Amino acid sequence: MEQMVGNIVLFGFLFLFIYFVMIRPNKRARAEHQRMVDSVQPGDEVMTTGGIFGTVRSVGDEELKLEVAPGTEVRMVKRAIATRVTEDLDDDADASTEERATENA
User: Fold this and answer.
1) Looking at domain 41-105, which of 2.30.30, 1.10.357, 3.30.565, 2.60.40 is its CATH number?
2) pLDDT above 70 covers what percent of the chain?
3) pTM of the predicted structure, to 2 decimals
């Protein structure tokens, strides 16, 4: 009987460990991604899950139009947005290009 109670307590701790290590952070990440997707507006630069960069031209309930090249728009679901591109990324890219140029000189 004592062994059975011990097993139940062990499984309880195991469930709590799995919840706090795996389930809860995953829920938080999904909620954060959903907030980011819901806040996307026309004019924002985004990167899709497929690695395509573009500018949002229009936003609907479940889909949006993304301009990937001048005059070329793609219709896609909002869930396909991986991240919003910020000016910081452009600054980092310029800095790394300058670093590579000085290394090659």
Assistant:
1) 2.30.30
2) 82
3) 0.64
